[in-house]
Design brief:
With 279 residues, this protein is mainly alpha-helical. It has one domain. Helices cover 78% and strands 0% of the residues. The radius of gyration is 21 Å and the shape is globular.
Length: 279
Amino acid sequence: MKFKFKNLLLIVILLQVVSCSKIEWGYRFGDWIINSRVKKFVRFQGEDKKKFMAILEEHMQWHKENVLPDIITLGERGLKDIERKSFDKALVDSYMSEILNLYNKSMMPLIPKVTPLLARLNDIQIDRLRKKLVAGNERIEDQMKIRPEEIKKKKIDQYKENLGEWFGEINKKQLDLISKSYQNLRYDPKMRLARRSQRIKSFLDSYDHKDSKVVELKLNEALKSSWIFKGRMTNWMDRMSVFMSAFLNTLTKDQREYFKKNISTYLNDFKRLTSQSDK
């Protein structure tokens, strides 16, 4: 798929005319969207570039057929549970666990298909990738220099915005809950930096081996380790479940209706996608 910026603008205009949803747009052009993000780190060349685009196109179709139905099931469950009179931590835990399962189910099949291409990167490509990954660490280090009160305000605003997208306008009681919960939800940037640095080292160390098959194997192991959520996130997820159960118990009738309307819109798009044949 070769796109020029003017062609992308034309696509967006046409999609608006035919009332195509963002979800459908994402699936139809998902391979191009993903590739544009990957290119910030890795630029495949020649036949590998064609192979990568073919892998992405195949994966998007596979995802639509094998993962999207599970997402629909989870969304339909959410529509029923939002009517509950009260929400406990166990309920939120079950949703977070299922979301992580879907996340891993979406990503894991892609890794063994991409690693052979990554194993063939030349020294220039590897050096560019290294610099891009290290730059991400430097951004975290810069954030660590920001005053704590500024970070808190930014994070609270972020929580307010994210929750507002799903539930509508956040009221004062809920904003107070976010503010009081902030410290407990905060993920230590030092831990984040250490975890990210270790993942990057494990990934880049794979290229120290001379045998391309060994490189491929090591890259496969490094990527799987990066994607799979293990105990390192358990404590934070546990605290998040406590917060979300408390937040859900403050929902107003209007916020529940807002959530139901949001979820229903997504479900309609997802169901339409699963019913479409691949063109």
